[in-house]
Design brief:
Blueprint (H helix, E strand, L loop, with lengths): L1 E6 L6 H11 L10 H8 L6 E6 L1 H8 L1 H16 L3 E6 L1
Helix pairs in contact: 2-4, 3-4
């Protein structure tokens, strides 16, 4: 199973968050840098795979409501896509 490890400390702004996600999850150049584009990419990842998100509290502190919605996007994708596992570590 492919595993991707993400660090919430690295996502200090919307722009930084999407650049980081693009790099770490190997998203294509045309990645749209928004939550809709994130959803599109998460639902087309090679599966099975696991995405581990560390330091979600730092992500939420930096991004506020947008950070909550970003984490919700990951969680919802894992509920919709068989073989996609998302683990949020405190």
């Amino acid at each position: 199973m492919e595993e991707y490890r993400l660090n919430g400390l690295r996502m200090t702004s919307r722009q930084e968050a999407h650049a980081y996600l693009k790099r770490k999850l190997y998203f294509p150049d045309y990645y749209g840098n928004n939550l809709d584009a994130l959803w599109d990419q998460l639902t087309t990842l090679r599966i099975p795979c696991r995405i581990v998100i560390r330091h979600p509290d730092a992500l939420q502190a930096s991004l506020g409501d947008y950070g909550d919605r970003l984490l919700d996007t990951f969680r919802e994708a894992s509920r919709q896509v068989p073989g996609l596992e998302v683990v949020v570590e405190d």
